[in-house]
Amino acid sequence: MISYSRWMAARFNVASVEVDPSWEGAMDPRIILVNPSRKKNVGFSFIVPRWLVVLAEATPRKFGDPVLIDETIQSFDPAMVRPGDVVGIGINTMNCLSGYAAMREAKLRGATVVVGGVHATIVPEEALEFGADAVVTGNGDIIWQKVLEDAFRNKLQKVYHGGRVSGDELLPGRWDLLDTYRYMCPSVQTTAGCPENCTFCSVWVTEGRKPRQRSTDRIIAEVNELSRLGFRVIILADDNFNPATQGRIARETNRTVRKMLEQNREERLRFFESYDRGVAVKPAAFTQMTSEIVSDPEYLKASHDLVGVRAALIGVESFTDDGLKDVRKTWNKKGEEMLETIQAIEAAGISVLASIIFGLPSDTLETASTMREFAARSGATAAQFTLYSPFLGTVDTSEMLRDRKMRATNRPLAEYQPRSPIQILGDPDYRFWLDEKLPRVVTIHPTMSSDEILQEIGKSWDSFYSFFSTAKRAWLKQWSLKQKICFFLLEQGFRKFYGGYGISADSVSDKQLSRIARSSLKVAIEFYNRFFRRKEAKRLSTQTSSAGLFSHEAKPSLRQE
Ligand code: B12
Ligand code: SF4
């Protein structure tokens, strides 16, 4: 177990707390928002962490424009902080350690530090224990204003509950404050929450099971702004892009919930139509869907035709019945049926990133082979094989932590039946997410060693992305040779950056990128921005002068009534 005081002493041994004179002239007091990262200062990043721009929008203009620091781009330099500044830090479980480090340094310079984000929502007391002046749980969109008012009047409370704000209140981002040329994809949210309750996922716990649709006008205005900035690809950072499809509604037994889902489906389809009419130059969108989208051909077609969804992460999780039972996702198709599902989504023009978890309680060395074989035959454009990991706030992790506590009491097993066959390492006080030397696998699987699990995951990435398999996938696409070559290079790049781990916002991956890989990333993003985005932004800005290009009524509806 980590000794808290030793860790703090080693980590925050800051010799000087002098303020960088270049910041002296700036307006008083300032708000600084920090997105911490374990991998500092890569310089460029694929995806914008949305909370940064949303909190910037939530900051009343009277307090001045906040300074946005995304540590994947630029390390947080504590010298920029002056006494009286308010520093807001957003953390998830993977980057909380870096967040606490930034917090401590900001506090040493006399700032008031407020911590929010998924991790702070799940364990708010931890940020306070580490010295935060205040912690915000839930959505920051509305409550942030109150926090700032209180902070500047010296009336700050310890805990603020932002709750789940209504869809209409979910704010757009302030893109003007971000150096967007450092990123490949901006992220926009269209809906929050997910009606499912998978045991490995914290979304339904924090965001709720009732989907919240964001305001259509706000989404359209935001996407049009991003189009004007030259972005041609966006991430729809939705918890679940298709919360209510025909299949989902059909299996709902609760009448009230079914009614709510039916309304949501109608609302989504209306939104898709308005989006199509209102977004003048539609960017290609990448999002996260459930496989149930195939149960609803109208929804699937509209996602592609009206919203421009061209790729989606689909939570396959497991190809076996037992695996799906493990994660309470038996509504997902299994085996051959899942292959048909993936092929149907691909046939609708949406490239599938099949997301598969390995290391589930029922997984064995045999299921690893099955997983590879199914993935290869699935027809998915891409696949990721992720390690089953205990994230805080999930049913699985809560059970494992409780099991660990009970085991430590040495009560006879007859009195306590562990809930999970998987155990979390360490004694009951060991908070693995705070361990700087965190082992890759923090759990003990009932039948496989950690090495075996990692080997199988490695083998799966190797076989799916082998030169031959990638070339074959490229060859089978109905594309021009140039597109096939691009696809091949992209897939190899995906494997290089995310292999062994899965798609992330760069910041959380522990993967050590070689200098060559980092440089290629920089060159690729620089190239995209310089030669494509700037040109595109210029072209569009000349077009905006012609009336109505970005108005919501720009195009007639394409949906047949
Ligand atoms: C889109 C998404 C992705 C995208 C983009 C990620 C990105 N960084 O932009 C992709 C596909 C790349 C991705 C990857 C991964 N993700 Co993800 N992702 C999401 C998702 C669905 C939405 C995130 C989002 O942008 N929401 C919109 C913004 C506006 O909401 P927000 O960040 O929560 O911020 C609000 C509040 O939290 C609060 N807030 C946030 N910060 C602050 C700071 C202050 C000071 C205040 C006051 C308030 C505040 O106010 C904000 C506005 O309301 C979430 C689910 C979720 N609901 O959080 C999972 C989620 C964050 N991801 C998760 C995981 C596990 C991952 C991966 C590790 C998956 C993997 N490969 O194994 C990777 C890496 C994560 C990372 N951080 O990079 C987990 C995190 C669990 C945890 N306890 O930390 C989540 C919660 C989903 C889950 N399965 O449980 N992800
Ligand atoms: S894994 Fe996907 S479907 Fe399951 S609860 Fe989380 S967001 Fe919903």
Structure, explained:
The longest helix is centred in the C-terminal third of the chain and has 30 residues, at 515-544. Helix 14 (365-377) packs parallel to helix 16 and helix 17 (467-476) packs antiparallel against helix 18. The protein folds into three domains: 4-167, Rossmann fold (3-Layer(aba) Sandwich); 168-387 and 449-493, Alpha-Beta Horseshoe (pyruvate-formate lyase- activating enzyme), CATH 3.80.30.20; 390-441, no CATH class. It has 19 helices and 18 strands. With 561 residues, the chain is α/β, with parallel strands linked by helices. It starts with a helix and ends in a 17-residue tail after the last helix. Helix content is 40%, strand content 13%. A six-stranded parallel β-sheet has the order 3-1-4-5-6-7, sandwiched between helices. It binds cobalamin (B12) and iron/sulfur cluster. Iron/sulfur cluster (SF4) binds at residues 194, 196-198, 201, 203-204, 239-240, 290, 315. Iron/sulfur cluster binds next to helix 7.
Q: Quickly give the structural class.
A: alpha/beta
Number of domains: 3
Q: CATH homologous superfamily of the largest domain, by name?
A: tm_1862 like domain
Small-molecule components bound: cobalamin, iron/sulfur cluster
Q: Tell me the helix content.
A: 40-55%
Cα distance spanning the termini: 62 Å
* Total of DSSP H or I helical runs spanning 4+ residues: 19
Uncertain segments are 1-26, 545-561
Strand order of the largest sheet: 3-1-4-5-6-7
Count of individual beta strands: 18
**Largest sheet features:** 6 strands, parallel
How large is the radius of gyration? 24 Å
Give the overall shape.
Answer: globular
In the CATH scheme, the class of the largest domain would be Alpha Beta
User: What is the CATH topology descriptor of the largest domain?
Assistant: pyruvate-formate lyase- activating enzyme
CATH architecture of the largest domain: Alpha-Beta Horseshoe
Q: Proportion of β residues?
A: 5-15%
Mean pLDDT: 88
